[in-house]
Hints:
Helices cover 33% and strands 16% of the residues. It is an alpha/beta fold. A seven-stranded parallel β-sheet has the order 8-7-6-9-10-11-12, with helices on both faces. The chain has a five-stranded parallel β-sheet with strand order 2-1-3-4-5, with helices on one face. The protein has a two-stranded antiparallel sheet with strand order 13-14. β10 (226-230), α9 and β11 (251-256) form a beta-alpha-beta unit. α1 packs parallel to α11 and α4 packs across α6.
Amino acid sequence: MKIAFFDAKPYDKPAFDALGEKKGVKFKYFETKLTEDTVSLAKGYDGVCVFVNDTVNEAVIDKLVEMDIKLVALRCAGFNNVDAKHAYGKIHIVRVPAYSPYAVAEHAMAMLLTSIRRIHKAYIRTRDFNFSLSGMTGFDLYGKTVGVIGTGKIGKVFINICKGFGMKVLAYDKYPDRSIECETVQYVPLDFLFEHSDVISLHCPLTEETYHVIDERSIEKCKRGVVILNTSRGALVDAEALLNAIKSRKVGAACLDVYEEESDFFFEDFSGHIVDDDILARLISMPNVIVTSHQAFLTEEALYNIAETTVDNIIGILSGTGTENELCYRNGNAHDCKKCF
Ligand code: NAI
């Protein structure tokens, strides 16, 4: 089985090579992203393996089908970059629904603590032998209220971490899991969450419903000084509205592992270039904004689990035995296939 692997990075290769060799899947690594311009590189392969910022739109899908390619293997959980409706019945799309919710939830808390305790500032100061504490005052998480939007695998781990800090949790999910409710965790309507949270963390998928869930209107409802955490998908936040709210001091801090226009920049070295996205550049220039480049997933455990599930998904589809991790568009909504394809 031969797979064209797009947007390949050095940290991807060890686990994919080891597991691929063991199980009979050969990967050809391409540094470029999959787009309409690069899709022809996949000619002659059985499938393509892609990540969060590769493009799997109508044109790319049609070209893959024309080249007789059977499979798109996403090595990630989110599939907002895939036109699942167009793909349905034409080409198999598989994903990795879970690989380490701990990796993402722990990164979210790492960003929160870094931000509110000014660790990013302290690191730079002490390296310069500046031991002054002015401007470094933070606040305790103990006793504060965190609003968690999306209480799936990652949201639940994040809630547990917050409980460990003695925080009160207000949760919102389209499909609440009442089993997690307790004295300190309570499902509430979204507006209530906005109005009462000191910190808001996003752990829902990007859909038409959740697009810009953090926008001017919702920020208006929030407490002054609220901290916004987004480790989910960039377009959950209207970045311009966030920037304006930071400038007006309504939002106290933002921690962003994702950004709406990240595909133009993230995963690449732009240190010698002029970044022509003024909103991103202005956000990064703010002392109370921390941006990481979609790295919340990046732990050894997650990389191994991603490779293992992806290789098994590829074998399942190409050998005909199937996989439950196939995306299905039956009933008009993309969901994991339970062998109904
Ligand atoms: P999950 O599927 O276990 O949980 C998502 C939750 O969101 C579910 O409980 C679902 O009911 C809820 N939800 C769906 N629509 C909603 C809506 N309209 N409003 C509120 N909640 C809604 O997914 P998981 O594994 O927890 O991942 C969450 C998100 O994290 C993914 O969609 C992905 O975008 C992001 N992610 C980010 C990574 C990173 O490296 N930064 C890595 C992995 C995932």
